Amino acid sequence: MNVKEMFLNQTWRWIDHSSSGLQFNPLQSFALDDTFCASVGEGSSASIMRAWVHSPTIVLGIQDTRLPYAADGIQDLEEEGYRVIVRNSGGLAVVLDEGIFNLSFIFKENKKFSIHSGYDLIWEVIRLIFPDAPGTIEAYEVRGSYCPGDYDLSINGKKFAGISQRRIRGGAAVQIYLAVTDSGAERAEVLRRFYKTASKGEGARFTPPQIEPQVMSSLTELFGEGMEINDVLYRLLTTVKNEGAMIEPSSLHQEELPRFDSFFHRVVERHNKAIEKGTNPK
C-alpha cells in the first residue's frame, strides 16, 4: 500500500480532538484508538484519521516505571506540573503538551501490510504534508533523543517526530507525534532529568536512553518561522484531499460507547497497576 492506494477514492472518518483533547484525560486517547481499531477491524467503520492534542502530560512506557527510583522521577514530573500516565503499548517516555500534534491513522489490518509498511506509509504522508521542509525529512534512530526508534523523523539531524503502531482485533493504528511549537530541547531536558532521578546511576532491567536535548527540535524551530497546530491541520486535510480522500467529520458513535468504556477501563487499570509497581518497587 502506498499513499495513493491509501487515500484515492477512500472515505475516512475525520475525528478532530486537537482542541477538545485539552479537556480530557490523555488515557482516553489510547482507549479511543483501541475502540476505533476494533470498529474498523470488524468492518463497522470506515478508516479513521484522528488528531489529538493534550495538556502537559508525560506518557511513560511500562519499562520506565520499572526503574529503581521511578517514584521519585514521577513525583518530580508532577511537581513540575505534568500529569503522568502509563500507556498500554510499547515504547519509552514522550512529552505531550499544547504544542505537540498527535495523529492516528486507523485502518483495517492487511496480513500483507507489514509493520515496516505502516511506518513507511506515515513517513511518506509527512513528506507530502511538508514539501517545503528546510531539508530532507529522514527516518532513522536519532541517538540522544527520547523514545528513540528506527523511524524517528528528523531534518538535518534534529528529531521532531516519532511513530508508533498498535494492532488490535483486525485494526491497525499508526500514530505519530509532531513537535510543532516551542523548544524540542526543553522538552527533552524534562525527560533527561526524569531518567537521571529515576535511575540514579543504578542498574535496572533496561538501560534508559542517554538523552542529549540538543538533538530534539520542533517544526517552528526547524522552519525558522511560527507554525501552529491549525497550520498542521490545514496541511493535513489539504494533502489527503489532494490525494483523493473523502473526509467525513465524525465523533464516537453511540454504538461504540460500550466498547470505549471497556477499553478505557482496561487502560486505566493497567496504568494504575504500573504506577503502583513503580511507586512501590518492593
TrEMBL record:
Q: InterPro entries from the xrefs?
A: aa-tRNA-synth_II/BPL/LPL, BPL_LPL_catalytic, LipL, Octanoyltrans_LipM/LipL
| Gene Ontology BP annotations | lipoate biosynthetic process; protein lipoylation
GO MF terms listed in the record are: ligase activity; lipoyl(octanoyl) transferase activity
In terms of superkingdom, the source organism counts as Bacteria
Catalyzed reactions: N(6)-octanoyl-L-lysyl-[glycine-cleavage complex H protein] + L-lysyl-[lipoyl-carrier protein] = N(6)-octanoyl-L-lysyl-[lipoyl-carrier protein] + L-lysyl-[glycine-cleavage complex H protein]
Pathway(s) where this gene product acts: Protein modification; protein lipoylation via endogenous pathway; protein N(6)-(lipoyl)lysine from octanoyl-[acyl-carrier-protein]
**Feature type site, description Lowers pKa of active site Cys:** 159
Q: Which PANTHER family match?
A: OCTANOYL-[GCVH]:PROTEIN N-OCTANOYLTRANSFERASE (PTHR43679:SF2), OCTANOYLTRANSFERASE LIPM-RELATED (PTHR43679)
Q: What else is known?
A: The reaction proceeds via a thioester-linked acyl-enzyme intermediate.
**Family from the record:** Belongs to the octanoyltransferase LipL family.
Name of protein: Octanoyl-[GcvH]:protein N-octanoyltransferase
Tell me the organism.
Salibacterium salarium
- Gene that produces this protein: lipL
